[in-house]
Amino acid sequence: MKIDIAGIEGFDGMTAEQKVEALLGYDLDPAKLGFKTQEEFDKIMTENKQKKDEIRKLKEGAGTNAELEKRLAELEERNKELDRQSRMANLRASFTELGYSKELAEEAAKASVENDTAKVIEIQSKFLVEREKKIREEALKKMRRPGGGGDDDGDKNPYIDIAKNIGKAQAESAKAASEALSRYML
Description:
The protein has 186 residues and is mainly α. It has helices at residues 16-25, 30-33, 38-62, 65-98, 102-113, 117-142, 158-185. The chain has a domain at 63-142.
């Protein structure tokens, strides 16, 4: 660091001893030399410490790159699982609305989400068999039983009496023929 001798009056005309005396007594102004005062230095150091603390806290809060990548992978996996569950729920509701049983709707939704077409077709076949069975049962429940020889209004049909008499006569004839044969066969 150089001292500006222009600030010392008559420096050029002084003897060597006088120059040493003048230089020893010379008061250096730190502000003129670009130095900071102790107060300014303390303030800068305090700000620097605060900034370092903020950076440390941010690093601690964020974690390392490996931790961040691991957390991101976990979040992506969780997102995929939630998306899968959402699609399953929507498909399950759709299959149930079509008339699938709760169990078949669950199986069909799972197979659809997993893109297992063969399984979806197998479940569809089961559903169709069950549905046909239910339709037949419903139709049989709704079907009226035939009347016992009368019309819908309860009157007797004369042809039924004739059919009964013919059947009775044939039964008696068959019985007589059987008895006659059994007498001669002994």
